[in-house]
Amino acid sequence: MQNPYLPYPVRIDEIITETEDKNLKTFKLVFLNPDDEEKFSYMPGQFAELSVAGKGEVPIGIASSPTEKGYLKFTVNKVGLVTTCLHSMKPGDIIGVRGPLGRHLWDTLKGKNVVIIGGGFAFTTLRSSIVYMLDPLNRMNFKDINAIYGSRSPGMLLYRDELAVWETRDDINMHITVDGTDDPDWKYNVGFVPTITEQKAPPGNSDTYALICGPPIMIKFTQPVLDKLGYAHDHIIMSLEMRMKCGIGICGRCNIGKEYVCKDGPIFTLAELDNMPKEY
Amino acid sequence: MKYINIDKKNWAGGLENLYGNYRLFGPAKNNKHHIFKELGKGELPDLNYLNTLPSPKSIAFPQSETMFEYSLDENKKGHHILKEINKDYSPRALIGIRPCDAASFLLVKRNFDTPEYKDPYWLRAYEATIFIGLACSSPYSTCFCTSAGCGPFHEDGLDLLLVDEGKNFIAKILTPRGEKFIKSAGWETEADPTVAEKIIKNMKIKAEEKIASFVSTDQLKNKSTTRLYDATFWDDIAFACINCGTCTYVCPTCWCFDIQDEVSRNSGLRMRNWDSCMYPLFTIHGTGYNPRNTKVQRVRQRFMHKLKYYVDRYNDGIQCVGCGRCIRLCPVNIDIRKVCDIMNNYGSSSRLET
After folding, report:
1. CATH number of A8-100
2. For residue B353, pLDDT beyond 70
3. What does the alpha-carbon distance between residue A120 and residue B318 come to, in Å, rounded to a whole number?
4. Chain A partners of B284 at a C-beta cutoff of 8 Å?
């Protein structure tokens, strides 16, 4: 019997400090047993439990794309016991990865226009989604791709080098924004994500899906904008967060109504959320 | 169906015969109340009891259980890599389990044995266990099994049902595993099936008549989840609750757990421990935000899970077998039967809707 609680051992290959406050680091992980990489077959939007022996586990969205072979990437905010320990680790250290966990909705998105809306450090699985869609083998499976991504300041944006490259490409409309900046050389947008969404996002229709990930305040103010733009609730896809332990719908804590966020989510359409208790 | 008569004079001898083939678990008196414990050689289960204070769920779901071990010593090969622990999953027999508690294992199995994931700890222990039931003839006043999907002579989840006839037990063999168990004990006196069936039927009717309390559950499936969730009665239901968690600990169908690492010097264990939706730490985020920050939210979660979310998820009754432990042991007299009726009737009368 396969033990779904047993993490795959991985080695930390590289650690990148992403933001100016140094609270966000990206961990590039390599499987100790090459066979495990094949077993860990994932899609953008899924997550994994990172396991630190002696500390515990923490559920983190997968920031790498399945089109990037040989490693996994996770961008981790320093918050509690496990993430603080992770932030003090060094390349070469051994941790564990358990997953992939959660569902994805890529079957729904095939052949559609995709609008990515992200804020702050919730951009990780959206990065995975963009890299996946822009892969030469996948790009023809999607129509127009728009991405709106904002953070408090330029120094708080994740993956700045990649953002600059996407900005210059013609197969994705990238809209980078910051809440404010005193940098005279800032050449992108200034304004909150909901405002930029209203200005830049295409109107909603049956062929267009919005993928939103961000802090609750951003989601709260973006939703009316999407309503105004004509997005139906079953065309708005969101990712939820909950305290989790098992990640496989068994330990019982992350439910909203009858759904377990870890197993039945963490991706839900707004139409699904409309029929669930507002307990998140 | 095969019936065996076990003369009580042969009871101890039979158990003695079983001792080498099974680890035997049974009720035993611990201070003032009964618990299930592993029986030593020659130790007899104390079947003169109504039910145990904690449920026997810990036979497959211990309150605290090791999952993995690891070394943090960087000089050791495989340090920081979690390893599985060898455990004793040799055959075990749970002797004298009440039918309601046996039914709870089938209910909980839905959580631990899913199409996508199998919980190896629960499942291996469950599969190693043979369930020897003891029919109830004198229930508690708080028992409501007959309206919670089972009953005092309920057979689902059992391998063998023992019916106490005074000088002897009638053993009704329900599965091949039960038959093997009986053979292994050396109890061979077959009872006349027609007679045995008649005796059991009469005793069953009498026992069922003694179950004096009921819940109504027929409307739960049809209710709107969000309307029940937003109902105003939760404040009243939760008012006296002190969030002690007793209800969740004694409940045979509460399955929630926490996972924690424990370290001593250079070696560590990953463990799982029972957890409870009554506690704020159950759902608190790393940021400090808690979607179930108040006791009303937590009490609502417990009852909504058992009586609505479970009903909707599995479409096969409530997540409760009517053992009544939570009612008997609640320090502030919160009664799931009343809550169930309020939920079941919600919206059908204007009085309850306010």
Report:
1. 2.40.30.10
2. no
3. 42
4. 243
Q: How many folded domains does chain B comprise? A: 2
Fold of A106-239: Rossmann fold (3.40.50)
Within B88-237, strands assigned E span: 92-97, 129-134, 160-164, 168-173
- Residue B168's domain comprises 3-210
- Domain C-terminal end among B188, B210, B232: B210
Question: Which residue type occupies A137?
Answer: L
The answer to whether B229 contacts A94, with C-beta atoms less than 8 Å apart, is no
Taking alpha carbons only, the member of A97, A92, A75, A67 closest to residue A27 is A75
Of the residues B309, B312, B316, B319, the best mutation for testing chain A's interface (the one with the most A CB atoms within 10 Å of its CB) is B309
| pLDDT (0 to 100) of residue B350 | 44
Contact A245 B258 (CB under 8 A): yes
Q: What is the mean pLDDT of residues A130-143?
A: 98
- Say yes or no for a CB contact (<8 Å) between A251 and B309: no
Q: Is B350 on the interface with A (CB under 8 A)?
A: no
B117 touches chain A (CB under 8 A): yes
Q: How far apart are CA A159 and CA B281, in angstroms?
A: 33
Is residue B277 within 8 A of residue A279, CB to CB? The reply is: no
**Is there a domain that residue B155 lies in?**
yes
CA distance A205 to chain B (A): 28
- CA-based Rg of chain B, rounded to a whole angstrom? 22
pLDDT tens digits, A83-116: 999 999 999 999 999 999 999 999 999 999 999 9
Q: Cα–Cα distance between B171 and B169 in angstroms, integer?
A: 6
pLDDT, tens digit, for every residue of B165-213?
Answer: 999 999 999 999 999 999 999 999 999 999 999 999 999 999 999 999 9
B292 touches chain A (CB under 8 A): yes
Average pLDDT, chain A: 96
| B309 neighbourhood in chain A, CB within 8 Å | 255, 257-258
Report B:190-219 residues touching A (Cβ under 8 A): none
B167 C-beta neighbours (distance < 10 Å), count: 9
Give the percent of chain B with pLDDT over 70: 98
- Of A5, A58, A80, nearest to B67 by CB-CB distance is A5
Give yes or no for a contact between B157 and B121, defined as CB atoms under 8 angstroms apart.
no
Quick check: B166 contacting A, CB < 8 Å?
no
Q: What is the C-alpha separation between A145 and A165, in angstroms, rounded? A: 15
Name the residue among B121, B151, B134 with its Cα closest to residue B49: B134
| CB pair distance less than 8 Å for B263 and A54 | yes
Query: Could you read off the pLDDT of A212-228 as tens digits, one per residue?
Result: 998 888 988 999 999 99
Strand ranges for chain A from DSSP E: 8-17, 24-31, 47-52, 56-61, 72-77, 94-101, 113-119, 145-151, 173-178, 189-190, 208-213, 236-239, 255-256, 259-260, 267-269
Q: For residue A212, how many other CB atoms are within 10 A of its CB?
A: 24
Residue B215 lies in a domain: no
Taking the Cβ of residue B317 and every Cβ of chain A, the question of whether any pair is shorter than 8 Å is answered with no
